[in-house]
Design a protein that fits this description.
Chain B: It is a multi-pass membrane protein. The complex is a heterodimer of chains A (275) and B (262). Chain A is of the alpha/beta class and 275 residues long. Chain A has one domain: Rossmann fold (3-Layer(aba) Sandwich). In chain A, β4 and β5 form a beta hairpin. Chain A starts with 13 loop residues before the first strand and ends with a helix. Chain B has two domains: 37 residues; 212 residues, MetI-like fold (Orthogonal Bundle). Helices cover 79% and strands 0% of the residues of chain B. Classes of the chains: A alpha/beta (275), B mainly alpha (262). Chains A and B meet through α3 of A and α7 and α8 of B.
């Protein structure tokens, strides 16, 4: 398999187009690349999962698409416009990206509702009353209605992550970029949130890019799985996931699903054994 | 709400502490009588408390207390404003912080009370040297705590604010300052005590008023019991000042809970 994976998706124009995007930290003698130049197209409304072991560059790539980390080489285009412009992330494109971080960071001195409203308050484009009702609507959408006046330390890990998703959706971005959003949760909560995320995605049809190291999570959620391999980090293969939507918990017991998880497992284990 | 045990809530603070205090006073009294200590060296507790009672009922003593209070508060406020502002300024520019670090260290290791005679040369024997001394002592801990508080903002929260297009001022106002507030208040708590130290030492050297001046003026007349009483009065003043700043914490950091340690 080649070091760069190129994949297009069924004729639809790509919302996110990555061309030769790579990253080297501390470019100097002996610096190992975190991600070899990689290309990938993600269509509008697609659910793409980045899957791979630690140190394979999947989070690095997501941070570059998020506008938090500048690529060393290559271009990232959102709806045809380059995201990075002379070392700066372009603001008008950044507001089309909604970010959900791994440990659902909320500001501890703000209420849940104020946290959800924060992006709107910072941008200050709409009237205050509109922002408040918008934040409440988002909380209701993610199944966290009625906890708006609580403080972040008073709610559970699953609720925190729902709030973080509501916050990312509050400014109606086109893309949801999620970095191991449910990694810190217990298996039961994680399963419930995966189901809810699918429902949310089917309702809103946002483009989602989700990073995980769980093969079952990837197979359950994704339209396409992008497999990463380590040392140095690169895109290995892109796997289409054929299961019809909406996917239910029952699917995860089916032989087809089990076979897909087993294939992913074999593939990743094989990658780890390579020198 | 956690239940507080009777022993911790009532028994320890309201019974044991006064008993220990009484035992200490008794031991002091016993020591002075048994060894027949001269009252010029160590007066018995009774005359000390009598002198303190006299101090508390004397208008002149209260005006000295007020002078010391005013000096400490004025210096403290100056240090708070300048300390927080400098801390924020240094946090904005790592280059500026690196450049100023040797000077800050040099200033910090200097025994700052050694500057009081210079202040007197520059500003005379008025309030000036007093306020300046009580400002430069707490300046460093307040500034350093502000800087540390801002530095300790988790990277994840910074990324978050950046992803919402927060500008530099918004980052400061919405994230860095609220995050640093508990650190700053800790700096203020250390600072208020240092401000009182600065005021009293300045009064030793340059004052014609204040409790520090009153204390030094009792040396020549060997009024040791009065000196003890003034020390008690300073202790009272320190408590009031500290309680004021501790109350500020409740006012400023009402909803704060410590961030998760992960």
């Amino acid at each position: 398999m080649s070091g760069t994976g190129v994949a297009s998706s069924g004729g639809r124009p790509p919302l996110i187009a990555l061309t030769g995007v790579g990253k080297i930290f501390d470019a100097g003698a002996g610096a190992a690349p975190a991600l070899l130049p990689s290309s990938l197209s993600i269509a509008d409304g697609e659910f793409v999962v980045f899957l791979g072991p630690s140190g394979c560059g999947k989070t690095t790539l997501l941070r570059m698409i998020s506008g938090l980390l500048e690529p060393t080489c290559g271009t990232i285009a959102i709806a045809g416009s380059p995201l990075w412009d002379g070392g700066r992330c372009r603001k008008e494109l950044r507001s089309r990206l909604g970010l959900v971080f791994q440990d659902a960071p909320l500001l501890p001195w703000l209420t849940v509702e104020e946290n959800v409203r924060l992006p709107l308050d910072l941008r200050g484009r709409s009237p205050r009353a509109e922002r408040q009702s918008g934040a409440r609507a988002m909380l209701a959408l993610v199944g966290a209605a009625g906890i708006g006046s609580r403080m972040p330390h008073e709610i559970s890990g699953g609720m925190r992550q729902r709030v973080a998703i509501a916050r990312a959706l509050s400014y109606d971005p086109d893309v949801l970029l999620m970095d191991e959003p449910f990694a810190a949760l217990d298996a039961i909560s994680r399963e419930a949130l995966n189901l809810e995320l699918q429902t949310l995605w089917l309702a809103t049809r946002k483009t989602v890019v989700l990073v995980t190291h769980s093969m079952a999570e990837a197979a359950f959620l994704a339209d396409r799985i992008v497999l990463f391999s380590p040392g140095p980090g690169r895109i290995d293969t892109v796997v289409e996931v054929p299961f019809p939507r909406p996917r239910s918990r029952g699917l995860t017991y089916s032989p087809e699903f089990q076979q897909m998880v087993r294939d992913l497992h074999e593939r990743l284990a094989g990658l780890m054994e390579q020198p | 709400m956690r239940k507080v045990r009777l022993r911790d809530a009532v028994w320890l603070p309201w019974l044991v502490t006064p008993c220990l205090l009484a035992a200490g006073l008794l031991a002091w009294h016993g020591f002075v009588t048994a060894w027949n200590i001269s009252p010029f060296i160590l007066p018995a507790p009774r005359p000390v408390l009598e002198e303190w009672a006299a101090l508390l009922s004397s208008r002149r003593a209260w005006s000295h207390t007020a002078m010391t209070f005013a000096g400490a508060v004025a210096g403290f406020l100056l240090a708070a404003v300048l300390g927080v502002a400098t801390g924020i300024l240094l946090s904005l520019s790592p280059t500026l912080e690196r450049l100023s670090r040797p000077f800050i260290v040099a200033f910090q290791v200097l025994p700052k009370v050694a500057l009081i005679p210079l202040f007197v040369v520059w500003m005379g024997f008025g309030l000036g040297p007093k306020i300046l001394t009580s400002a430069i002592l707490p300046f460093y801990p307040i500034m350093m705590n502000t800087l540390l508080g801002i530095r300790s903002v988790p990277e994840g929260l910074r990324d978050l604010m950046v992803s919402f297009d927060a500008g530099r001022f918004q980052l400061l106002r919405r994230l860095e300052f609220p995050h640093a507030l508990p650190y700053i208040v800790t700096g203020l708590e250390v600072g208020i005590v240092l401000a009182l130290v600065g005021t009293v030492v300045a009064e030793f050297v340059s004052g014609s008023s204040g409790l520090g001046y009153l204390l030094v003026s009792r040396i020549n007349s060997y009024e040791t019991a009065q000196m003890f009483a003034i020390v008690l009065q300073l202790c009272l003043l320190g408590l009031v000042l500290y309680a004021g700043v501790a109350g500020l914490r409740r006012l400023l950091v009402p909803r704060f809970t410590p961030p998760r340690s992960d």
